[in-house]
């Protein structure tokens, strides 16, 4: 203890400090100067006194401060010497070109132009005309593409990675710019940049969202999504501008405010609301410019201005198209439709009085010529600020209030334009939707008629996607019409209760109770009986007729496609050398025999003809099997036999038998047992569509049970005997008609050779269930 107190006196005497002892050798302490220690990376200084006291100091050399300005800064640099402090530096490497999906045709044209120029350089030939033609074609394609952009395409352009950012525009339009930092609460959000700048000698307060130009900058700028600190920084600068009389220009380019837990805890909503309230009370002009995407309250927090201008390809929305599609359609793939319905483009927002003007962009978007775009922004700022300069503070407040008060105004009773659907009543919206649907139906019908006129003799093939889309739209509309009709007839509650029971029975994965099936049938019969009383009966009827027409068109299109594929494969099969040689050999023998009919041929030659025919049929079976079909039998075409038969009653008997068979099948299908099996089959099929690896065996078993039930019912009804009797009559009629003529034999051979077999035969597939 004695030594410790002596040492404290020794160190504290003569008002000396530890650093003094290190600087000199006074009081018996030997040491080194701190300056000398600073020259070494790691130095240990040890002092020793007569009382064995040791003092050790370890000093680690720190990194020398790296000043952002050069050794000899240019005092006349644009923005002033302090602009060297800005973190926004020119990019070392040029940004990589990014091609959007809809721009791919333009890229192909550019590639062709480059290839032709390269060829001209390598060969020395003159390709001037070809290059001029391609360049003209490219310019025209670019013009056509960018003058007819869809809303979702404009969204993609607004989000383009190479699109000029807020600071890009600021450095292009200002003479000097000084960035100001911090919210005076200990934070500085890099996603919002603020500062004072001059344009043509006039000072402005600039506030804007700042996105990054590459991945590193985007991470640093948080992809342009501000936290509450950013909005509070913007608010501080607004108060500063209002105090000093600086006009405020805000640049909006954000997907929205940053919505993480920490931001919410620190008052994201309060910060945005405070900005909204404050901006309506500032007595200086405020001009907002949307340069990219303006998302929700994050954009509005610096967007309550006297005027809001938008770049031509900018968008402004309350929710992104992807988010809207996920909410309304349960899938983000419906974003294009959502973008169209949201009315988020500059032209649409100007028509709705949300935006006040459009600043043009070059063809190809703002990133195609950033400097030109910035100059257009500068012109717009000067024009509007000259207008605001004539207003007093109170007039500016009234002007700002009037701008937002007039948004959403409409007049009741006036006819609704087809394009304008804002603030419409529900029935007007439905009527407009119905008109649009009818227009689409008429367009599709015109396509079908044109296709038939172009090829009247061939089957008309239409795009399955177009037909499926139209059928789904019609089904959705018919469901809505049925709901309205049920409501008008007072069946809405019963329908909802029955639907709930049906869904519950399906979820439990067992057969429905016969009582529930009977209840559904009664409700269905009552609904169908009273449907004509509903006020929307004509609309329901018209849409049902449309649905039937398009369902038939779809079935015909699919059948035509399958038939075309079958014929193509049959042709390939019979064109094989070994098959063709056999057919040609048999035809040559028949021709050399001199026989005028099949009966006159020798038994050996008859056997050879039949054998060749069976081989061709076997090839046909192989082709069908490769397509997932099964050839069960090749039988004479009964319609042709009847047409050639002198007995006209056979045709009537055939039609009557077909009617009886169809009626019997419908009767069997309506029985509760078969209905419950069919409903269960639907449930299993729906499950299998979600989980393809499961349920296939159960589906096959149910299909076999249903087919067997129908087959048993048909066999017990006596229709099978009638069919056999009719076949005998047809055989007798065929013999009387003398169809085994030389001409028919040749036609059969030709048909076999063509591989179609459609002239005299048809494929019988009894899998009607």
Quick recap of the structure?
This protein is of the alpha/beta class and 769 residues long. The protein is 58% helix and 9% strand.
Please characterize this protein's 3D structure.
- This protein is α/β, with parallel strands linked by helices and 769 residues long.
- Among the domains are: 103-148, no CATH class; 164-405, 2-enoyl-CoA Hydratase, Chain A, domain 1 (Alpha-Beta Complex); 464-543, no CATH class; 647-717.
- The chain is 58% helix and 9% strand.
- The radius of gyration is 42 Å and the shape is elongated.
- 21% of the residues are buried.
- Residues 133-387 form the CoA carboxyltransferase C-terminal domain.
- Residues 721-732 have a biased composition (Basic and acidic residues).
Looking at how many chains there are and whether they match, the oligomeric state comes to single chain
Task: Report the CATH topology name of the domain at 164-405.
Answer: 2-enoyl-CoA Hydratase, Chain A, domain 1
For the termini, the CA-CA separation is: 107 Å
**Structural class estimated from helices and strands:** alpha/beta
**SS field, number of helical segments:** 30
Q: How large is the radius of gyration?
A: 42 Å
Mean pLDDT, as a whole number? 76
The CATH superfamily of the domain at 164-405 bears the name 2-enoyl-CoA Hydratase, Chain A, domain 1
Pfam families: ACCA
Domain CoA carboxyltransferase C-terminal: 133-387
Protein name: acetyl-CoA carboxytransferase
Catalytic activity: N(6)-carboxybiotinyl-L-lysyl-[protein] + acetyl-CoA = N(6)-biotinyl-L-lysyl-[protein] + malonyl-CoA
């Amino acid at each position: 203890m004695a030594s410790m107190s002596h040492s404290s006196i020794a160190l504290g005497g003569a008002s000396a400090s530890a650093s003094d002892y290190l600087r000199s050798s006074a009081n018996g302490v030997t040491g080194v100067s701190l300056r000398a220690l600073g020259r070494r990376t790691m130095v240990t200084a040890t002092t020793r006194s007569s009382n064995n006291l040791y003092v050790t100091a370890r000093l680690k050399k720190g990194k020398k401060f790296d000043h952002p300005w050069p050794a000899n800064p240019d005092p006349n640099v644009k923005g002033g010497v302090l602009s060297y402090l800005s973190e926004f530096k020119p990019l070392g490497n040029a940004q990589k070109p990014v091609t959007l999906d809809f721009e791919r045709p333009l890229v192909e044209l550019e590639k062709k132009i480059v290839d032709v120029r390269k060829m001209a350089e390598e060969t020395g030939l003159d390709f001037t005309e070809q290059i001029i033609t391609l360049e003209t074609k490219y310019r025209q394609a670019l013009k056509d593409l960018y003058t007819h952009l869809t809303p979702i395409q404009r969204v993609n352009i607004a989000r383009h990675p190479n699109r000029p950012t807020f600071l890009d525009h600021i450095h292009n339009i200002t003479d000097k710019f000084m960035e100001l930092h911090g919210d005076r609460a200990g934070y500085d959000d890099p996603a919002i940049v603020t500062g004072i700048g001059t344009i043509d000698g006039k000072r402005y307060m600039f506030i804007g969202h700042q996105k990054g130009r590459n991945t590193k900058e985007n991470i640093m700028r948080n992809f342009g999504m501000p936290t509450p600190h950013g909005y509070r920084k913007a608010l501080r600068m607004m108060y500063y501008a209002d105090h000093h009389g600086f006009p405020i220009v805000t640049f909006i380019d954000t997907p929205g405010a940053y919505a993480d837990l920490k931001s919410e805890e620190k008052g994201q909503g309060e910060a945005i609301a405070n900005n909204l309230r404050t901006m309506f009370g500032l007595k200086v002009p405020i001009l907002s410019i949307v340069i990219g995407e303006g998302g929700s309250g994050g954009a509005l927090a610096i967007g309550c201005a006297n005027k809001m201008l938008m770049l031509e390809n900018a968008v402004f929305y309350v929710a992104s198209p992807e988010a809207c599609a996920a909410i309304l359609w349960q899938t983000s793939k419906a974003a294009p439709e959502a973008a169209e319905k949201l009315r988020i483009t500059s032209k649409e927002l100007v028509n709705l009085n949300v935006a006040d003007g459009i600043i043009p962009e070059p063809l190809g978007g703002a990133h195609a010529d950033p400097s030109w775009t910035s100059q257009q922004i500068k012109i717009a700022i000067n024009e509007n600020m000259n207008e605001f300069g004539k207003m007093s503070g109170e007039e500016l407040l009234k002007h700002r209030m009037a701008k937002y008060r007039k948004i959403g105004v409409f007049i009741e009773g006036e006819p609704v334009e087809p394009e304008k659907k804002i603030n419409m009543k529900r029935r007007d919206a439905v009527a407009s939707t119905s008109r649009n649907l009818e227009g689409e139906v008429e367009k599709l019908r015109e396509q079908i008629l044109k296709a038939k006129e172009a090829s009247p003799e061939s089957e008309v093939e239409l795009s399955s996607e177009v037909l499926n889309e139209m059928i789904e739209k019609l089904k959705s509309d018919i469901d809505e019409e049925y709901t309205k009709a049920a409501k008008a007839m007072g069946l809405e509650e019963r329908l909802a209760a029955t639907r709930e029971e049906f869904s519950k029975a399906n979820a439990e994965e067992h057969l429905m109770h016969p009582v529930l099936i009977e209840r559904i049938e009664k409700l269905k019969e009552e609904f169908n009986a009273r449907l004509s009383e509903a006020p929307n009966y004509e609309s329901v009827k018209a849409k049902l007729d449309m649905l039937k027409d398009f369902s038939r068109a779809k079935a015909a299109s699919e059948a035509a496609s399958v038939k075309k594929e079958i014929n193509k494969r049959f042709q390939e099969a019979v064109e094989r050398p070994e098959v063709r040689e056999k057919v040609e050999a048999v035809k040559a023998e028949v021709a050399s025999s001199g026989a005028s009919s099949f009966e006159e041929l020798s038994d050996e030659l008859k056997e050879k003809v039949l054998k060749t025919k069976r081989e061709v049929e076997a090839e046909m079976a192989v082709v069908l099997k490769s397509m997932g079909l099964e050839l069960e039998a090749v039988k004479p075409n009964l319609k042709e036999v009847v047409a050639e038969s002198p007995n006209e009653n056979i045709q009537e008997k055939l039609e009557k038998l077909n009617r009886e068979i169809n009626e019997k099948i419908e009767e069997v299908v309506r029985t509760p047992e078969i209905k419950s099996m069919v409903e269960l089959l639907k449930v299993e099929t729906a499950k299998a569509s979600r989980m393809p690896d499961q349920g296939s065996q159960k589906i096959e078993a149910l299909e076999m049970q249903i087919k067997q039930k129908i087959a048993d019912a048909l066999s017990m009804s006596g229709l099978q005997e009638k069919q056999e009797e009719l076949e005998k009559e047809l055989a007798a009629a065929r013999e009387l008609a003398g169809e085994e003529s030389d001409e028919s034999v040749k036609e059969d051979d030709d048909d076999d050779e063509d591989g179609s077999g459609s002239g005299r035969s048809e494929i019988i597939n009894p899998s009607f269930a």
